[in-house]
Design brief:
Blueprint (H helix, E strand, L loop, with lengths): L1 E5 L2 E5 L13 H10 L6 H15 L6 H5 L6 H7 L4 H8 L10
C-alpha cells in the first residue's frame, strides 16, 4: 500500500496504482490517472467508467461482455477507448480493484 497525490488529492493505492478505496474516486482523479498513462478521457470514456462503478458497487462482476451490452459502447469500441487491456485500464481509472479475470 502506498500514498499517491493525484489531482491534488492524496489517495491510497496498491502496487499497480489501483485505488484501495473506491469512495475516493472523482472524475478529475480519473482524468489525471489516465493522463499519466497517455490517455485523454472523453465523455464516452467517463460513461463507461460510471457504468463499471455502478455495476461493481452493486455487487456485480465486471466483464468485457457486460460493457459491450451496456449501451454505452460495443466491445470493439471498448477496445478502442482503452487500448491493450480495456477492462484492466477502465477499472483502474474508475477507482475499482483490478478485475480478477485480468492478469
Amino acid at each position: 500500500m502506498a500514498e499517491k497525490t493525484i489531482a491534488g488529492v492524496t489517495v491510497q493505492v496498491d502496487d499497480e496504482g489501483y485505488l484501495l478505496d473506491p469512495n475516493q474516486w472523482t472524475e478529475e482523479l480519473a482524468r489525471e490517472m489516465a493522463k499519466e498513462e497517455g490517455l485523454e478521457l472523453t465523455d464516452q470514456h467517463l460513461a463507461v467508467l460510471k457504468f463499471l462503478r455502478e455495476k461493481y458497487l452493486g455487487g456485480e462482476t465486471l466483464t468485457i461482455r457486460a460493457v459491450g451490452k451496456s449501451g454505452n459502447v460495443d466491445i470493439k469500441g471498448f477496445y478502442k477507448l482503452f487500448p491493450g487491456a480495456p477492462l484492466k485500464k477502465a477499472s483502474k481509472y474508475a477507482g475499482l480493484p483490478k478485475p480478477s479475470s485480468c492478469v
